[in-house]
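Lay summary. Proteins are chains of building blocks that fold into shapes, and those shapes determine what they do. In this project we predict the shape from the chain. Here is one chain we studied, written as its sequence of building blocks.
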Amino acid sequence: MAKGLLQWVMMILGSYTDSWEYDPLTMLWSTKAAFPGPVRQEGFSFVINNKFYTGGGIDNNLNLHYSDLWEYDPSRDSWSAKTSLPVGLLGSKTFVIGNSGYVLGGFDSLFQVSTASYRYDQLTDTWTTISLFPGTNVDAAMSDSLFGYAITDTTLYCFDPITNLWTMKAPVPSGVYDAISGNVDSLIYLLSSDGGVLSYNPTSDIWTENYISLGSTERPYISGRSVVISDTAYFKLIKYNINNDNWIVDSLLDVSQWLYSIDSIGYALKGGSYEKFDPANRTWAACNTIPLISADYSFSTTRFGYVLGLTANFTWEFWQYDPLNDVWTIKSNFPGRNQGNGNSFGIGDKGYIAAGLDSNGYTIDDFWEYNESSDAWIQRQSVPGGSRMTGCETTWNNKGVIAFGLSDPVGLDMCDINVYDEITNSWSTIVHSLSCRSGNVIAFSHGGKLFIGQGQERMSMGIRIPFYDFWSYDDGTSAVADLQSNGGFQVYPNPTSGSFTIETTRSDIAKVEIIITDLFGRKVFQESQNSNSKKQNILINVSSGMYLINVISAGVKIETQKIIIE
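And here is the predicted shape, written in a compact code that computers can read:
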């Protein structure tokens, strides 16, 4: 970027009025003419046609609101006073369209939030009032060549300078505060003070989250049930492209609660209605009214959807939905104690309801199976780890997953991830190092991988601390199958308590590097081995479970084997 006003910085906060210009070519700063106005805080600024404007704000004693406007001309290194803003404001946000700068929001002389908005015309040096900002406090503002945009919390408003009207656009995926904005390749980017990066496409009216890694702590906070269709997981107001690892806000997904997906169609409660969503056409269509006022448990089989909840008469009923004929049918009464705040999932032609609260408000670990062909319920082996509520669930590799939650309404966070195998009617536990969490955990599966993350840590006095992590989990079977063909390495003993030997018979490799990871891909051991040593004795101190031994030569992985730590 050539040297210009975007690289020019004015220091007028606190007791400073000095001005500086930064040259990105030489990476040097140079001092410029000092700002002639009073020192201030919380002023506004914008750039029009390579001239810098600043004004407003409040004095250091927090008494005097300024309404003045000053112009800096870099070609002359000089300041000049311009027509003052009609009122004094502090903390206002700005954007520029053409030859006009717009000032909106902030606080007036009574320190009340202002919704007044003003336009400054550079050509005539005049101010005019534009339509009131429809939101509350302006958290961020930006523009493209045609429109201005302003954000209140997660609500985005668009200003049309021709019609002088504000309209609402796709919501922002997470709240922003004191954001820095910029335009690159027709996209608007926001860098929030919390480290989050968002991009907005004005043409498609779509937000995209931009992050470096899956473990980023700056991801948007997402909670609630989801459905997966093709390569996309759908949540309330947001969707996740699994292949591209992108979170995208989509205003079409304004649902009260996702229930399930059947044949690439998602079904959800939207307000008081029951509707289906076709992601291929991006359309919603109303379905036959659901005969329940609550959907406390829901799951789908290959052909049908099922909902367990309360009717308008407060009776506890279990209903089947036939998407082909758009018909609801009442089915066998649910015999369990599970009254809500638990988990449910479907596998094949069977459905499962687990845990939650009973009618007395106590957590339970009850686990029930529904057989679609016989319309019958059978109680199965209880969820391991104890009674729980508000955990997460999903179906993964034809198995059910139930994880995390609260031990009771005022109890401890749960830490386990449990997998149910319907064929053996047995539970197993995934070894992991994720933090314990009480609820609002998201979980879904795709392509053999389990995705899990977010949630909350329950603190004292009802305080919840959110998690922003998000992980994919693979049991390693496919990776091992692809990389075990050469037979040049042996690992023994396996299983082991942590002490084992890696031996090779290959003589064509000069040097290898041994990296051991858990099933989340996190490194737990790394060591180089010379070809002169055919055996490598290894001792690792890790939790019990399955790990992957990766042998790398010249930067290329040549072998992967499983090892079980007991």
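What the prediction tells us: The radius of gyration is 30 Å.
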